[in-house]
Amino acid sequence: MKSNLLSIEYERIKDLTAQLDKNPKNIFALKELADIYLLQEDYNKAVGLYEMLVASKPSVETEKLKNAESISDFDTKERRSLLETPFF
């Protein structure tokens, strides 16, 4: 059972590494790969990936701020109109 699990993890590591080769800023692949290494007790690799995630956090926060700024550009009347619009 354990060797089967290791085989699955090995394949997943290969897949996630390939994804990161194509897009090094893929935070979902970084997180999953870091979690796998943590479970395997490969702490050096896990920490390195978690540090990359922490370093990418400002860019995520920047996007949230950009979205918030674009929303704040609406005047109060437009905001009320959006809030009163039913979603269904």
Number of domains: 1
The string of secondary-structure elements, in order, is HHHH
The class by helix and strand makeup works out as: mainly alpha
The number of strands is 0
| Count of alpha/pi helices | 4
Give a brief outline of the structure.
This protein has a single domain, classed as Serine Threonine Protein Phosphatase 5, Tetratricopeptide repeat (Alpha Horseshoe), CATH 1.25.40. It is built from four helices and no strands.
List the helices and strands and how they pair.
Elements: H1 2-22, H2 27-39, H3 43-72, H4 76-84
Helix pairs in contact: 1-2, 2-3
Structure description:
There is one protein chain. This protein is mainly alpha-helical and 88 residues long. The protein has one domain (2-84): Serine Threonine Protein Phosphatase 5, Tetratricopeptide repeat (Alpha Horseshoe). Helix content is 83%, strand content 0%. It is built from four helices and no strands. It has helices at residues 2-22, 27-39, 43-72, 76-84. Helix 1 packs antiparallel against helix 2 (27-39) and helix 2 packs antiparallel against helix 3 (43-72). The longest helix is centred in the middle third of the chain and has 30 residues, at 43-72. The mean pLDDT is 77.
Question: How would you describe this structure in keywords?
Answer:
mainly alpha; globular; Serine Threonine Protein Phosphatase 5, Tetratricopeptide repeat; 0% strand
